[in-house]
Amino acid sequence: MPRLVAEIRARATAAVLAVGVLAAACDSGAHPPDAQATISVTSAELSIRFDVAEGKPPTVSVLGFRAATAGPDAPDVLGLVDPLSAAAPDQGCALRDVDEAMSALVARGSSIDLEELSGVGVGLGPGEPLVRPFPRVFPDVAGVVGGVVAEAPPQPLDLLPEHLSIYGADAELPVAELAVPALPRLQAANGAAPVGGMKVDASDGLSLSLGGGAGAAGAVVELRPFGATVAVICAVPANASTEAVVTIPHALLVHLPRTRTSSWGVPVSIEVARRVRAREPLAPAGARVSVEVRAALAVELRP
After folding, report:
1. Mind listing the pLDDT tens digit for each residue in 277-296?
2. Is 284 helix (H, G, I), strand (E, B) or coil?
């Protein structure tokens, strides 16, 4: 009899353990993944920018890199490496601050390691030499972004091309042909014709009128104070008409930092840009290519 009781107890214990293991297995699948779990993302970026200014020849610059990002999320890497490429809001205007974005990376425990996107060439038309970026050490930022990028500094052009070709490291023929987007013109700032160095009273906000043959739809308007890391970025809706008015509220303008260089207002660059993006086979998993045209006007604002 004691032997029978011991055997029954042993079987009962085994059954309890089996149920416990099964419950633990089921329970482990019921929990959602940890929101702060570290992820690793690799990406490749190629940015081609044309700067245009009235009375001056246009210039072209190229930036390319691969990025290995570690952290709980995948940030806008191109916008961190090149603040001029920061993504515009889906609609309206928003404040962008590179220092705050870097601080947020540190707080989340993220890091971005950069490696040059080598062997890439950009062709600007028949008879024009290829623009090839070369390696440059990217300065370590806050201990979270650093490495090497490939860069070609601004080079003057006779004319702004309508199309460009992208070549890979071992390709004799282009791997992609992309159109250079047309840029709308800044036609007025608070009703006044835009002139370099003009003073604009923006105490009630700032209205910028865009137009021209290219149309304003899909353009980006930015206010960039000189020597500051903060900017106001506004998106023109893709369904906007040929002409559009971008209104920047006073509540955003007051965040533009004042400097000692002017006793009247805040020296800023009003910049109008349009960019197109495509994914092309420049890296094993493809690369995101950004082609942008940008124009800038230096003014003083009194928020």
Report:
1. 999 999 888 999 999 999 99
2. coil
3-state secondary structure of 28: helix
Local structure of residue 20 (DSSP, 8 states) = H
CB atoms within 10 A of CB 159: 9
Cα 225 from chain centroid? 18
Give the Cα separation of 219 and 210 in Å (integer).
9
DSSP states along 72-94: SS---HHHHH-GGGPPPPSSEEE
Q: What residue spans define the domains of the chain?
A: 39-302
pLDDT per residue, tens digit, the chain (303 aa), is 334 334 434 444 444 333 343 333 344 444 444 445 567 889 999 999 999 998 899 999 999 999 999 988 778 899 999 999 998 998 899 999 988 989 999 998 899 999 999 899 999 988 888 999 999 999 988 889 999 999 999 999 999 999 999 998 777 889 999 999 999 999 999 999 999 999 999 999 999 999 987 889 999 999 999 988 899 999 999 888 889 999 999 999 999 887 666 677 899 999 999 999 999 999 888 999 999 999 999 999 998
Hey, how many other C-beta atoms are within 10 angstroms of the C-beta on 297? 19
How would you list the strands of the sheet with 244-248, edge to edge? 185-189, 206-211, 244-248
Length of the chain: 303
Read off the tokens for 206.
């700032």
Token representation of residue 10: 């042993």
Task: Give 93-131 as a 3 state SS string.
Answer: EEEEEHHHHHHHHHHHCCEEEEEECCCCEEECCCCCCCE
Task: Collect all residues with Cβ–Cβ distance below 8 Å to 48 and sequence separation of at least 6.
Answer: 60, 61, 62, 122, 164, 289, 290, 291, 292
Phi, psi (5° rounding) for residue 187?
-100, -25
- Cα separation, 100 vs 221, in Å, equals 21
